[in-house]
Amino acid sequence: KVLFIRHALAPGMGDPDNFKVDDCSTQRNLDNRGREQARNIGAFIQKNIDKWAEPVLTSQWCRCIETAELMNIGPVQEFMGLNSFFTKPGKKGVYLNALEAKLQDLPRDGDLVVMVTHQVTISAMTGRGVDSGQGVLYDLNNGTSELLTLPSYQN
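The structure assignment produced for this chain is given below.
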């Protein structure tokens, strides 16, 4: 199975017009609540999931990388196939094709694979919408998915 996690809370929607994937100052980023949420997600995984594969795969967007790093459940590796196409619809096929190829290569009887990504990617792959910091368990064998409620931040 794969656990798709939408990045933790990063207020706003989409990215600014001057967005650059290699410059976090041009992106929508986690706030303090999002950072707390990411740490809480990692603690939840450590407590409730027996085994997961390393590395944690993440979109190249800073909010996803930071979420994966703050989860603190293993090394983090950027993977282009998890990138957002919300404001770049022309990239949808490129990103999803890369992700589908990665999913095809995963062992069907291996440990849970954790992927931190974006709402549009999760929706395209599973047909499910999720809030910031929430997850979807995706079964590689039969293509079914189920929502997984992950912890948020303290109000």
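Interim note for the steering committee: The mean pLDDT is 94. The two ends are 32 Å apart (CA to CA).
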